[in-house]
Structures are given as structure tokens and as C-alpha cells.
Amino acid sequence: MIHSLFLINSSGDIFLEKHWKSVVSRSVCDYFFEAQERATEAENVPPVIPTPHHYLLSVYRHKIFFVAVVQTEVPPLFVIEFLHRVVDTFQDYFGVCSEPVIKDNVVVVYEVLEEMLDNGFPLATESNILKELIKPPTILRTVVNTITGSTNVGDQLPTGQLSVVPWRRTGVKYTNNEAYFDVIEEIDAIIDKSGSTITAEIQGVIDACVKLTGMPDLTLSFMNPRLLDDVSFHPCVRFKRWESERILSFIPPDGNFRLLSYHVSAQNLVAIPVYVKHSISFRDSSSLGRFEITVGPKQTMGKTIEGVTVTSQMPKGVLNMSLTPSQGTHTFDPVTKVGD
Amino acid sequence: MTDSKYFTTTKKGEIFELKAELNSDKKEKKKEAVKKVIASMTVGKDVSALFPDVVNCMQTDNLELKKLVYLYLMNYAKSQPDMAIMAVNTFVKDCEDPNPLIRALAVRTMGCIRVDKITEYLCEPLRKCLKDEDPYVRKTAAVCVAKLHDINAQLVEDQGFLDTLKDLISDSNPMVVANAVAALSEIAESHPSSNLLDLNPQSINKLLTALNECTEWGQIFILDCLANYTPKDDREAQSICERVTPRLSHANSAVVLSAVKVLMKFMEMLSKDLDYYGTLLKKLAPPLVTLLSAEPELQYVALRNINLIVQKRPEILKHEMKVFFVKYNDPIYVKLEKLDIMIRLASQANIAQVLAELKEYATEVDVDFVRKAVRAIGRCAIKVEQSAERCVSTLLDLIQTKVNYVVQEAIVVIKDIFRKYPNKYESVIATLCENLDSLDEPEARAAMIWIVGEYAERIDNADELLESFLEGFHDESTQVQLQLLTAIVKLFLKKPTETQELVQQVLSLATQDSDNPDLRDRGYIYWRLLSTDPVAAKEVVLAEKPLISEETDLIEPTLLDELICYIGTLASVYHKPPSAFVEGGRGVVHKSLPPRTASSESTESPETAPAGAPPGEQLDVIPTQGDLLGDLLNLDLGPPVSGPPLATSSVQMGAVDLLGGGLDSLIGAPNFVAPPAATVPANLGAPMGSGLSDLFDLTSGVGTLSGSYVAPKAVWLPAMKAKGLEISGTFTRQVGSISMDLQLTNKALQVMTDFAIQFNRNSFGLAPAAPLQVHAPLSPNQTVEISLPLNTVGSVMKMEPLNNLQVAVKNNIDVFYFSTLYPLHILFVEDGKMDRQMFLATWKDIPNENEAQFQIRDCPLNAEAVSSRLQSSNIFTVAKRNVEGQDMLYQSLKLTNGIWVLAELRVQPGNPSFTDLELSLKCRAPEVSQHVYQAYETILKN
Predict the structure, then answer these.
(1) What PANTHER family would the database entry show (chain B) (predicted)?
(2) Helix/strand/coil for B891
(3) Cβ–Cβ gap B258/A239 under 8 Å
(4) CA distance A183 to chain B (A)
(5) Measured between CA atoms, how close is B615 to chain A, in angstroms?
(6) Across the interface, which of B134, B135, B301 has its CB nearest the CB of A77?
């Protein structure tokens, strides 16, 4: 199982280490640095790196490498999923996940990591439970703690830990009962020169913010559930009900959570809300060229399209660009060669 | 107020300051001090000097302070074991605390303190916690058993914790079950033989129930454990599959992949006609596609696994080609993996799309990616015949770009296309030749030279082209040199008149000026061929070459089946069985897919490795065998020509002139490769060179006498286990050489070719002295007898039993493994006669406990007969004595590895009612005695 965790910033300093079994020397990270050097860009560091005695599994988030060390045969997805969970937890606790914030809260971070894994086995990864065990730092609480001498550490066994609904605390109370659902869809499309779609698929999620008293049992039904190709649910959703009736039935966690993510595949006709056309031309004698992109709305069934952004990655050979948008603003970063 | 203040230091000496604060009376100050200590610890500073002061803070009601102290203890207890004992009392007390959180915390922390002395105190509290009323404590205690096992395995077994842990699998709380399974799996990994996870239908049912209710991590543990279970029939497999399928919709990708593993494995048992089989196939596709929209790291692991899955069951994802199209912002490692899968999925239906994509990729900026894309185009051409023409024209377009690395890759793949579709696309050669000068990579140069040599008759200036390469012959890499040599020989055979000079030049360069043995050997072979029989040379060198197969990079089926059992693990990322890379390798059990049940086509069930094969066996055998085969393929000749190294070196010793004359007789016998002079093959039917057969005549008189006993051939590998290949054989020893006489019978319906053999490491280092020579393809129902000379210079590993030999045989169909026991007397060497004085001294010298007594029953021979019979098997009588009417024979023998065995044999002549022989053996390595005794018995009774 997971042996150790190293946090490494983009300049290659190990600024936090945590060991759940015996201590692994930080020199093991040298193999990681080697791979990092070879990869040239941080995003291209391979996620699984073998070393003579260990395996390093890493994720790169918020300009920090989270490097897990394992010694035996462990499902790598298990480790990577866990690392993502660590990142999410930090973000949940401190608002942002960055090196200064982690350094500022090093003791809380350490306590949280200790709660998340025991001997490499995940212990409590639900943020609800973690927050009951170790309260996230707030200015108010720090002040109260200094005055009363109480602590950030909960001394009761979290109620959710062992119940059938581990994601929800008991005894939640709100004066205003409200629930919000955001449907976020991302369309991945490849469009060819002539503007016709080669492939398009939708990756969608429903994020919810539920603030309801007690133990609410909710149902959510869709107009056309057939469209959803492949769905992954939050553990709270009753799968049987979905299988038989295509209805989401669940007791929600308290606060923000991702209810489900779904996939609409290329086979279903995905209507792209915009059209994109481009043309590239080079002037023969000079090293200058012209790159035109036209973006416009397609039939949108009455919905307006807002906040259109065009991002274009330029090849390394491009030195500079002068941009002239017909509408809106523009930027160009000569380092990453990304034009907005 | 942030924790960064803990990092500020004062000038007076940090440790000193902290010490004072830790001993302060104020609670608040103490806590702050401990926090500072922890902060220093996290960044790797050594604060172990504060150990006693920190431990003093442990007795407290403040939970945060307690946790912090525990954190410190876990880190430093190992360096201060004596001081750590101080903490034990607090732990034991905490284990009795009414608050389950504290009980669990105490038992958890105790397990993390890796100090032997503390573990003794841990047992009692742990036992209590395993039976605690609170499930939270029980689940923590379950993991603690695994920790303790890691520190002191013996202790855990002695205390019976393993049984308690097994009981926890039936616990009412699913979280406890999951942790118990996780702990047991971890323990089982280090003790493969212990059979801890003894799964039966009842326990499987419990696991499946717990699966629905436990956390995502618990689900992973349970699914991985389920994957190790083999259902008894297809019904059970189906019902497990039905209950596992809902996990495919889990948000955690690790759960999804573990579920995929269980389904892929159990599907093997389901009949393909079943409706459920089809449903299951359909259900598997969407979750795999969804994995590709996750973060790049997850995608990478998923893609490596999908690569395995499409090789095993391409039907699952055959309609999902588009999701593998590369996105512009994918990291390079994802791009490369996607390309691989695109090729595997390419078929006639989607090839147009794939080619259009690949052509785009070939104009990208990333060099590695572009190269792979160009190669992919070539692989498409080979895989989908209908697309070959389009692929070739695409490649030609790419060559026109004149981008150096694109051109080179294109030439390499065009060579492969020529090998797949000969005489079809030769019109492009002219275009290729234009780019000759820009090639600077060995692989591309070698490919170009191959093309020039192969089509020399159509290229007008082929000799000039090759000559230009020849100028810098010694600066080229081996790959290019070998190719150049072959190409020029081909050219010579096609246009003998103009190129005689050239061929002589290259032959002398290869044989006289080169230090590379491969190059030299190939040079000599050609030289000899050309000088003896140019017609034969033409037949050999310009023989029709076999077409290359479409998927040379597929994983071997047996390995693939094993890897399918490891979906989701590191093994699946590396595409190697865990035994190949997991530390120590000892604890690795080979997994195999369950065979299809009787109701379905039994012929389709995958061949699994022989049961009981020790770990590491396949590993030792397969890779080397691949190399061997690769070598054979690299040789550009029709029939495999390779010989024992000794043959060539003896040739080199003679003057080169000899090549044409004296040794001709050796080469004269077609396809017969001269064995080293010392080796006398015992097979009678093999053709011999005339010169050598004289030699045999000399020895044959002795040979019949001195040949040791040969057991009749026994069937080693039955045909049904080896896809129709039956192997029977025996071992012989004649005049100093050991050989393995094999009889290969083809009981299948197809022709078998490309035989090769390999031994696993064994106790006496037995190894084939020459490759397995099966000259003609073995047609159905044909039998061939081969004598394989052996030597004892292979690598040595002690086997159990000592005379066990594991053999791998490969042919064009598959690799097969079998193991056999060889009689020890083939290892008795000819100079095993010991001097009398020596014998006496040695006999006394070997301690008495090394003496072993045996009885050979019912052997009505007298001393002389015994003695002469044993002598022929190299057991020598040193002295003979008559004591009270009994003959005592003192005998000696020596094994190939220099071990002497001394024997005292008591014979009672003239007593027909008492025909038992008594044998006592003395040897410095007493474990051989048993086998020597068996050898005695075999020799005397036959």
C-alpha cells in the first residue's frame, strides 16, 4: 500500500514528507527529478516511475507534484485517485492548494494526512468526516482556541464514519432549506478544415450544493435519460433505482458534492452550439503569416451563448503575434505561446 | 496566525529553546512547542534529541496534543527504542478508554511504532481491540494486524491473530470486512503459500454483500480479492459478474478498473453463445471510454490496461475508435499510448479515418510522437491489406516533406511493407533512393540497404549505392554492417559478373578486419557457401522469405492471459508479470485465467502454465527464447543456419584457404552443422560428414561397452497439453558427452516449424550445447528423432528434487513447458576412479553423519558382474575385499561438478536366497546420495 508521500514544488524542493510505514529516504525522489528533467515540461512527467526498490506515482496539480511511494504491487489507479483526493481535501480545507498555504498550515496538513491513511490503507477520505475529526482552520476558530484553550481536533467519533450513509452527518439544521444543481458540460470536438465535425463527445457533470435539514431523501428525474451513455455516481445514489427506472434517488451529503458525471459519446449526434472556421496563409517572401478564426453561434434553441473564449496553442517557432479581434479582448503569452 | 511561525528560529539554539518550552507548566505553551517540533520534523530536520521531553507530554486529556505526540513517536521511536518503552503504559491505558476514538488511536499508533520491544506489549491490547464492540476500533485493529505482521510475522502467527482476522471477514460491518480483506491480502502477498484467503462460495457471498455497502477503497480491496477466486462453474461466474457489474458506474476509477478485472477474468468461463455474454461485452465499453475523460495520469494507467483488453477481447471497443484520437493538449505519454491502441483497433471499416488522423499527427512538432505516427501508418498497411496502397502513398507524401526523421521512419516502415507484400510497391524505390544521403540513423540505413540488396536486379546502380556505403564500413553500427554484408552477397548472386570485386572486399572486411563475432560468422558462412556451391548459395540466400505477420508486437497469449488477471495493477502498466519486477520476487504466484467450463468449446481454453511451476520459471525461459528466435529471424536466410560456437572457432584456426578444401566434407552434408569434436551424438540416423565418421569408428568399439544404461523413452509432454506436439525422450551418456534423445511427433493438423529449446537453470547446470535442429518442417503425423548434445556449463540453481529439469520448447504455434527428472548417472564422469590411498583418506575424512545406507533388493548378480556393469556407467571399483564370505566392493564416482561420491557395496555371492545388496554412500554433499542410490538401482536392474 502507499508508503510515503512527498510534496515537491516546481523548482524541485521537497517541502513536505509524510511516511505511513517506515521512513523512506527522500533521496528516492532523485529518480523523480531525473524523469522531470527528461520530460522538459511538468505536465509530461510520466505518472508511474520505477526505481530499484520502489515505485513513484505522481500527480501534478496546482504547480505541486504529489509523489506517492509504494513498495509492493498496488493498483496505480488506487494511488492516483487517492492523491487526487488529497488535493481536493487540501483545497476544501484551505480554499486554495498552494505551497505557501500548505507551509502555513503544516500541522493541520500533517494531522489530516495521518487521518486519511493508516499503514497505507485509506481511513477517512470523505471531507465531511475529516472535518469533524480535524476542524479546518478559520480566523474565528483560532481566536476562540487561543482564548478558551480548545483544539482543532474533534474528540468524538464522527457519526458518519460507520453509518450506512457515511457521507452525511446527523443533526444538520438549516433555517433556509435550499438545494442547487449545476449542470456543466464540456464538449470535446475535432472539427476539420471545412467546418464539419469529425468527432464530438460530451463530458458532463452535475455538481450540487444541498443545504437541507435532517435526512432528506431526494429524487431527480431527467427528460431524456437515454442520452446519458455512461454514468458514474456519487456513492449516495441508489444504483438499482437508476437501473430500473432511470431516476436518481439519493440521500445527499451536506454541502457541495458531485452528484454524477456522465458521458454522451460520439455515436449520439452531438450538436455543437458554435461553428468554427479557420484559414491559414503565409506570405511567400517573408516569415509572416495570417491565421483567421471565425466563430459564430449555431441554432441554439433560444439559449444565448455567453463568454466565448478562443485559446490557441502556437508552435514553438512563432515569435510573436499581433491580434485583432472583431469583438472582445485578447492576450498573447510569448512564453507558453498561448493566445487568448 | 499561521503555522509558518513555527519555522522561525532564534539564535540561541532552537533545540534548547524548545526543550524549555516543552517542560513549561502552561498547557498552551506545551502544545505550541510540540507543534513546532512537528513542523521541524515534516521538513526533515532532526529533532530526535527532544524525545524524552515530548513523551512527557503524552499523559494529557487534550486530544490534539495526544495526537501530535503520537505523530512524533511514530517518527522517532525507532531511533530511541529504550525511551519508547516509556510510552507503552499510556498506550495500554488508552486502549481501555471509554472513547472508541481514543482506543482506536492508541492501537493504531502502537502498530506504527516499529520497535520489537513494544510489539510484545501490543499483543494483549490488540486482541481486545479485535473483539471490541465498536466497529471503528475493530476495523482499525484489523489493519494493525497487518502492521504487526510486517514487523514480526512469527509473533502474529503464534498469537493466532490470523485466525481472528479470518473471522472478521464474516463481521456484520462492511467496513470491518473490507479492512480485514485488505489486511489479509497484504499478509498473503508476503506469504504466498499460507493460503490465507481461502475463498469458498459462502465467503464470496459475504464479500459480495459487503461490496455494496463499504467505502470506495474497501470496494477496491474486495474486488481485487474476488479476482483471485475461481468459480466452480459458469453459473457461479455469471452470478458474481451480475453482482459486480454495478461497480462499473462508480465515480472512483480504481473501483471501475478492479471491477473490469473481475469481469474480464470470469467472462473466460462464460459460454460465448450466452445472451449474458453479449450484454456484458456491451456493458464494459462505456466505463472504459469514460476513464479517458479523467485526469491525464488516470488516463495513462487506463490506456495501458485498455491496451491489454483490446488484445484479449477486441470486440469490446471496436466501435470506439474515435475516443482514442489524440487531443492537442494530451501529455506525450497519453498520446503515445493512444496511438498504440488506434493501431490495434484499426480495421477495414475505420481505416480511412485512422489514416487521415495519422497523417495529421505526422506533421506535429513532437519528434517522438511523429516517429510513432509514421510507424503506425506502416503497421496499418501490414494489418489491413486493403489499405496498403493508401498507406504507401501517404508515406510517399511524407517523404516529400524532406523532414529528416520523418523520411527515416518512413523508409523503415516501407521496408516492412515490402516484406509483407513483395513485388507490389517496388515502383517507389526510385523515390527512396533519392533520399539516400539524408539517412543518418542505423535503423534507416539498414532498412535502405536491405531494400537495395533485395531488389538489386531492378536498381541499375545498386552496386554503386552499396559501394558508397562500404567506404565507411567500420564506422557503421553492427546492424548496418550485417545488412550490408547480406545485401552485397545478394547483389553478387544476382549480377555475378560485375560485382566480384565488391563481394570479395566485403567478405574480407567482415571476416578479417572485424572483431564482431556475429559479423565474422555470417561472413564465413557466406564465404564457404559461395566457394563450395554457388547454386546452393543462391538457393539459401535468395530463398523465398516468409511473409511477416501482421502483429509482431502482440503480447504472447500465455503472458496476456496472465496479465489480464493483473488488470489495474502495476503489472498491467508495465505489461510484465509481477514476478519480473516486484522486489524479491519470492512471493509471486502465477495467476492464470480460469478454464472454460465443460459446457463450452474446450479447445478454446487458454493453455496455462504447468501447475506447480515454481515462481520465476517462465521468466527465465521466455525472454531468452525470444532472443534466440529473433536471432534466427535476423539472419536473412531461408533455413536456420547456426552452429555451435566451437565449430566456427576451429575453422578460424585453420588458414582461410582451408575453407575451400579440407573442411568441405563437413559442410558437404546438407544442413548438418558439425558438432564440437568432443560431442558424439548418440542418434544413429543422423547423417555424418565422412571425416568425422572415421573418428566415430575408432570409438564405437568402446562406445558400445562404455555407453551407460539408457532408459527407454518416456512421454514428457503429451500432445493434448501442447497443441498437438508430443515429446518423448531420454538421456544418454556416451564417451564423455551427455545428450538428450528426443522424439518429436506432430499430432496436430498443421505443419510445425521453427523449433527451439531452452532449459531452466538446474542443479548441475545442464544446458543444450547446440540449438535444437529440426531441419524440415514437421508435417502432421510425422515423427522425428533428434539427439540434442548437452553440456554442464549452464547456470546453476538448486532444484527440488535435485535432478529436476524444466524445459521450454517453442515452435511456430506456441511455447510449451514441461519438467522431467534425469537419471543422475548421466553426470558420472569418466575420470571418476579414485586412487586407493585417496579413497581411504577421503572415506575417513567425510564425517559419519554424511553416510547413507540403502538396500538394493533382488539383484542376483555376483561381484564381478556388478562391478563391470557399474563400470560401464562410470562407477569404478577401487578395491575389493572378501569378508566372511561377503564381497565388499569399494567404489568411487565423480559428478560433472566435481563432487566425489564414495560407496561401499556388500554382495553376497552364492546365496540365492539372499539377493539383496547393501550400499552405503559417503559424500560431502549428502543430498545427492539418494539420487546416486537410484542410479545404482537403475543400472543394476536393467
Answers:
(1) ADAPTOR COMPLEX SUBUNIT BETA FAMILY MEMBER
(2) strand
(3) no
(4) 17
(5) 16
(6) B301
Mean pLDDT in chain B?
77
Q: Which secondary-structure segment (H or E) carries B66?
A: helix B63-76
Summarize the confidence of residues A123-145 as an average pLDDT. Answer: 72
Closest by Cα among A36, A75, A37 to A55? A75
Q: What is the pLDDT of residue B706?
A: 45
Alpha helices in B495-567 (DSSP H): 500-512, 517-532, 534-541, 557-564
Whether chain A has a CB inside 8 Å of the CB on B29: the answer is: no
Sheet order of strands, B714-717 included: B714-717, B725-734, B737-746, B783-791, B767-768
Prediction pTM value: 0.65
Q: Does B249 touch chain A (CB under 8 A)?
A: yes
Amino acid at B595: P
Paired residues of A4 in beta bridges: A19, A69
Residue B633 or A26, more confident = A26
Confidence (pLDDT) at A180: 92
CA distance A176 to chain B (A): 30
User: What does the pLDDT read at residue B496?
Assistant: 80
B178 to chain A: closest CA residue:
A121
**Is the omega angle on the peptide bond into residue B823 within 30 degrees of 0, that is, cis?**
no
- Quote the percentage of chain B above a pLDDT of 70: 83
Residue B871's Cβ-count burial label (10 Å; 0-12, 13-18, 19+) is middle
- pLDDT band per the 50, 70, 90 thresholds, residue A83: very high
Is B794 within 8 Å of B807 (Cβ atoms)?
A: no
Name every chain A residue with its beta carbon within 8 A of the beta carbon of B44: 14, 17, 26
Q: In angstroms, how far is CA B866 from the centroid of its own chain?
A: 47
Distance between CA atoms of B137 and B131, rounded to whole angstroms?
A: 9
pLDDT computed for residue B704 by the predictor: 39
Residue B116, burial from CB neighbour count under 10 angstroms (0-12, 13-18, 19+): exposed
The answer to which of B337-341, B677-681, B717-721 has the lowest mean pLDDT is: B677-681
Supply the DSSP string of B13-28, one letter for each residue: -HHHHHHHHHT-S-HH
Under an 8 A CB cutoff, do A157 and B101 touch?
A: yes
pLDDT at B276 over 70: yes
Closest CA relative to residue A29, chosen from A11, A55, A3, A61: A55
Binned at pLDDT 50, 70 and 90, residue B773 comes out as: confident
Q: ∠ CA B292-B373-B418 to the nearest 5 degrees?
A: 135
Which of B67, B140, B301 is facing A153, going by the closest CB pair? B67
More confident residue, B693 or B172: B172
Read off the DSSP letter of residue A235: T
Given a contact cutoff of 8 angstroms between Cβ atoms, the answer to whether B223 and B258 are in contact is yes
Does B64 contact A at CB distance below 8 Å?
A: yes
| Separation between Cα atoms, residue A275 and residue A296, nearest integer Å | 5
Q: Element (H or E) spanning B116, and its range?
A: helix B116-130
Alpha-carbon distance of A194 to A201, in angstroms, equals 19
